[in-house]
Amino acid sequence: xxxxxxxxxxxxxxxxxxxxxxxxxxxxxxxxxxxxxxxxxxxxxxxxxxxxxxxxxxxxxxxxxxxxxxxxxxxxxxxxxxxxxxxxxxxxxxxxxxxxxxxxxxxxxxxxxxxxxxxxxxxxxxxxxxxxxxxxxxxxxxxxxxxxxxxxxxxxxxxxxxxxxxxxxxxxxxxxxxxxxxxxxxxxxxxxxxxxxxxxxxxxxxxxxxxxxxxxxxxxxxxxxxxxxxxxxxxxxxxxxxxxxxxxxxxxxxxxxxxxxxxxxxxxxxxxxxxxxxxxxxxxxxxxxxxxxxxxxxxxxxxxxxxxxxxxxxxxxxxxxxxxxxxxxxxxxxxxxxxxxxxxxxxxxxxxxxxxxxxxxxxxxxxxxxxxxxxxxxxxxxxxxxxxxxxxxxxxxxxxxxxxxxxxxxxxxxxxxxxxxxxxxxxxxxxxxxxxxxxxxxxxxxxxxxxxxxxxxxxxxxxxxxxxxxx
Length: 471
Known about the structure:
By secondary structure, the chain is an alpha/beta fold. The protein folds into four domains: 128 residues, Response regulator (Rossmann fold), CATH 3.40.50.2300; 163 residues, Rossmann fold (3-Layer(aba) Sandwich), CATH 3.40.50; 76 residues, Helicase, Ruva Protein, domain 3 (Orthogonal Bundle), CATH 1.10.8.60; 81 residues, Arc Repressor Mutant, subunit A, CATH 1.10.10. The chain contains 20 helices and 14 strands. The strands form four sheets. It has a five-stranded parallel sheet with strand order 2-1-3-4-5, with helices on both faces. A five-stranded parallel sheet has the order 7-8-11-6-12. A two-stranded antiparallel sheet has the order 9-10. α1 links the parallel β1 and β2. The C terminus is likely disordered.
């Protein structure tokens, strides 16, 4: 099956109809034109991929049709055909811009072979254009998860990737639903074809149908040239519909039609076009609840959720955080072009690992990027992190009644005291174990505790209520 749209142009009805029937049987979408002028009118919509065109026609020759089409900016590929072969005619056709030349009567196998070659070339060109517009990330390093929840996600990705099944990926904003979708594509037989991500919530409702399914030239005001649409751009590949819950109900009906019939109809066209695309959808909303409220079609929900993958939030997979923090740090260093080796202060790493991250991986990556930009020297300190993360007004363990005030240096020292006391508590009072976890020497830990007590950085109750074991 192919999504190519063909136009057979010949003034002899019998020849035209026989060729068109052969091509439809081979899986092509085919229309016919009985002369050059009728063909030019049809080609002006801009959505015909290949015209199979007779050269000798009474109203407008095939070569003149080709010249006028090129002058009008029509990008259709022309394969010329004639019963009167001559070298001069072939050269003239090629100079005018034809991609191929065939002699009547047409050999069916040879015709299909040549159409396939032209189609492959057009597909390659279209894909290269898409690749220039999109960051596909095919060569990005993949993080290896350690938490049971994410290992289950990886197992499900491995199971569904080799199939053509639609997939619904759910999870909170920033959990990495797009990463899961890309992994499915990269591990599928479609990996060499385009991966087209689409934010359904970012497309204006009045333009959504054209964006998804394309349009013909002059289909509406401002449509000065034809557009293939995102589904045809993703031909033989994967289209990732992010925020699918934002899709208008009218477009949900059309999406259901695409899933069920494997075809799209560009705006302004009377001809549906076959399309071979895998659909992966994602949402942070409860589609089941939206169905109950009449905001999402139940039949579409069932079609999309044939295979459902839920990505848990970071707070439910804390085992991943230590390695994930280091992974994102190294990736950010490469992406931001810093070049130098930068490490995390132990207090910073401890804070990042223990934060709840309501914005999930996206928020964590943003915090690391910000810290890299602000960092002086080769180490990220607490001062480089966003204020909402370093707030210690409501610590859950030692220092819970401590409210910060004073200069940045004083507040950082107070936070350091809270962090050290908390680490000692987690180590059941074992100072040596606490020092190892904080990556500082045991003597440094003793010295800091003496400084905290002498400077009264925390109320005495926080020192006296912990019996710290002497080693």
